[in-house]
Amino acid sequence: MDAVRAVAEPRRREILRLVWDTELSAGDIAERFDVTFGAVSQHLKVLRDSGLVTLRQDGRKRFYRADREAMGPLAEYLQSMWAAKLDALAELAEAAERAEAEQSENT
Questions:
Q1: β-strands 61-66, 53-58 pairing
Q2: What is the rounded CA–CA span in Å between residue 44 and residue 50?
Q3: How many CB atoms lie within 10 A of CB 31?
Q4: CATH architecture of 3-106
Q5: pTM of the predicted model, to two decimals?
Q6: Cα-flanking dihedrals φ and ψ of residue 16, to 5°?
Q7: Residue ranges in the chain whose pLDDT is less than 70
Q8: Pair 44, 37: CB distance under 8 Å
Q9: Going by DSSP bridges, is the β-strand pair 24-25/53-58 parallel, antiparallel, or unpaired?
Q10: CA separation for the pair 10, 106 (Å, rounded)
Q11: Of 39, 45, 55, 75, which residue is 20 to 30 A from 28 by alpha carbon distance?
Q12: What distance in Å separates the CA atoms of residue 67 and residue 83, rounded to the nearest whole number?
């Protein structure tokens, strides 16, 4: 599977976001999802086979990290997409705070 098709799945994009700046074990990644460990493991395999994450094995544990260099221009796109989502979330939070403050003033 190519990299673009691999990141088309929302859970795989979320896994990439989790391992973007840090290395996490498969168990740590799986804990953050409401699906089975096996399902997360399959997503990790797709990401690994697509060259989007690297795998480091330490004993019985497997650690994953995004391979931004191998992603090429896709890395910039993903990072800008996440930044845009964070900006939108910040705007929503600020709007909620303003609405709450206005409501407090009116009561």
A1: antiparallel
A2: 10
A3: 11
A4: Orthogonal Bundle (1.10)
A5: 0.69
A6: -60, -45
A7: 1, 75, 77, 81-93, 107
A8: no
A9: unpaired
A10: 41
A11: 75
A12: 18
Cβ proximity of 65 and 54 under 8 Å: yes
List, in sequence order, every residue forming a beta bridge with 57; answer none if it has no partner. Answer: 62
DSSP 19: T
- Output phi, psi for 42, to 5 deg: -65, -40
Q: What is the pLDDT of residue 15?
A: 92
Looking at residue 105, its pLDDT comes to 78
Beta bridge partners of 54: 65
Classify residue 56 as exposed, middle or buried by CB count within 10 Å of its CB (0-12, 13-18, 19+): exposed
Give domain limits for the chain.
Answer: 3-106
Please give the structure tokens belonging to residue 31: 């804990």
